[in-house]
């Protein structure tokens, strides 16, 4: 794929989703692999046109032998093009959970973005990643949010002003490989991407090719589905957030919500009015409860369907009592409202 063609494709996606604006400072998560190296060169090529600044950051999890050479490669690549660079290294042990590894990486990227006063962190997720993620969510069980896959833009953490953006979601792995080969751009390979002990790798190597026998364009089909559902989910999610902000009282101010009058910000409860809630559509009721539960937690909280539906039915049942929810949360139903709170706060 020619340099101009791939730049135009990424630029169109950036423009459509308003990912980078004039004057932005952008931190690229540079792993040294083909995806991030491709994005590095693509972004450099459109700097003059969009008038933004690029910085790079590399995090070495310390999980692979000789992984330090990746950091050296990223440092030298950044220096070659005079791009400011910072590296970090973790002390994770082999066998560390994927979520733990990802959290360590994003903690580093967030701190590095703050160091460079960046508006966003950009990653090299592409069309193939999107397809694999949707399939992974489908296998595990998911709703509208999960079927939306990797979002083009979201806060790096709940309440953060720094966004995580993915401008290459419309570009395939094949197009990336062609771009790098045609322009003779060097990169490093991570052998763990072929390790079948990781479920995502098995999806990439076994399941996606099988699905392609039924639909040769399965990756493009899943990409279009994600684009459609992401817009739908953002609409529903925005309505739910507005409802919580205008009619409820919630601890998580960073998510655009606010504490109860007379309560401290960290009081940790959420009061939802029954009459207004019961008049809403089913999809909005579920999303409101999902956001309320997630917002009460100090860490990202994965709320499942059974949990939300159990709480929703309890809320509308008419019974005045208390129930325990997953973790240390509980709910109490009064005549006119539902109160979600941490254990020990309900009387």
Written account of the structure:
By secondary structure, the protein is α/β, with parallel strands linked by helices. It has two domains: 229 residues, 3-Layer(aba) Sandwich (Rossmann fold), CATH 3.40.50.620; 95 residues, Uridine Diphospho-n-acetylenolpyruvylglucosamine Reductase, domain 3. Helix content is 48%, strand content 13%. It is built from 13 helices and ten strands. The protein has a six-stranded mixed beta sheet with strand order 3-2-1-4-6-5, with helices on both faces. Strand 8 and strand 9 form a beta hairpin. Helix 12 packs across helix 13. The longest helix has 30 residues.
Number of helices: 13
- CATH fold title of the largest domain: Rossmann fold
Can you name the CATH architecture of the largest domain? 3-Layer(aba) Sandwich
Q: Indicate the structural class.
A: alpha/beta
- Calculate the mean pLDDT score and round it: 86
How many DSSP E strands?
10
Cα-atom radius of gyration: 22 Å
How many independent structural domains? 2
Q: Output the CATH class name of the largest domain.
A: Alpha Beta
Helical residues, percent: 40-55%
Spatial strand sequence of the major β-sheet: 3-2-1-4-6-5
User: Which band does the percent of strand residues land in?
Assistant: 5-15%
**Biggest β-sheet description:** 6 strands, mixed
Basic shape: elongated
Give the termini distance in whole angstroms.
64 Å
Which oligomerization state do the chains in this entry correspond to?
Answer: single chain
Q: CATH homologous superfamily of the largest domain - what is it?
A: HUPs
Unreliable residue runs: 252-267
H/E element string?
Answer: HEHHEHEHEHHEEHHHEHHHEEE
């Amino acid at each position: 794929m020619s340099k101009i063609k791939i730049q135009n494709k990424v630029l169109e996606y950036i423009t459509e989703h308003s990912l980078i604006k004039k004057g932005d400072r952008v931190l690229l998560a540079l792993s040294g692999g083909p995806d991030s190296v491709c994005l590095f060169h693509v972004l450099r090529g459109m700097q003059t046109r969009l008038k933004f600044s690029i910085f790079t950051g590399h995090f070495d999890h310390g999980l692979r032998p000789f992984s330090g050479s990746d950091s050296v490669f990223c440092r030298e690549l950044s220096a070659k093009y005079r791009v400011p660079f910072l590296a970090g290294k973790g002390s994770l042990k082999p066998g560390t959970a994927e979520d733990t590894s990802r959290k360590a990486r994003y903690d580093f990227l967030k701190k590095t973005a703050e160091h460079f006063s960046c508006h966003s962190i950009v990653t090299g997720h592409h069309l193939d990643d999107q397809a694999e993620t949707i399939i992974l969510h489908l296998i595990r069980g998911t709703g509208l949010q999960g079927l939306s896959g990797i979002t083009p833009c979201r806060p790096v953490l709940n309440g953060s002003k720094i966004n995580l953006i993915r401008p290459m979601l419309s570009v395939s792995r094949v197009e990336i490989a062609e771009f790098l080969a045609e322009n003779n751009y060097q990169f490093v390979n991570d052998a763990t991407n072929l390790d079948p002990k990781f479920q995502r790798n098995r999806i990439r190597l076994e399941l996606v090719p099988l699905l392609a026998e039924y639909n040769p364009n399965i990756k493009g089909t899943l990409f279009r589905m994600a684009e459609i559902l992401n817009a739908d989910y953002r609409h529903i999610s925005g309505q739910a957030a507005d409802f919580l902000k205008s009619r409820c009282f919630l601890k998580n101010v960073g998510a655009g919500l606010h504490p109860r009058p007379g309560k401290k910000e960290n009081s940790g409860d959420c009061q939802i009015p029954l009459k207004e809630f019961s008049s809403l559509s089913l999809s909005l009721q579920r999303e409101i409860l999902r956001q309320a539960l997630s917002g009460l937690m100090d860490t990202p909280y994965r709320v499942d369907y059974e949990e939300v539906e159990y709480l929703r039915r309890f809320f509308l049942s008419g019974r005045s009592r208390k129930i325990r929810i997953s973790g240390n949360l509980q709910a109490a139903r009064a005549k006119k409202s539902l109160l979600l709170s941490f254990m020990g706060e309900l009387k």
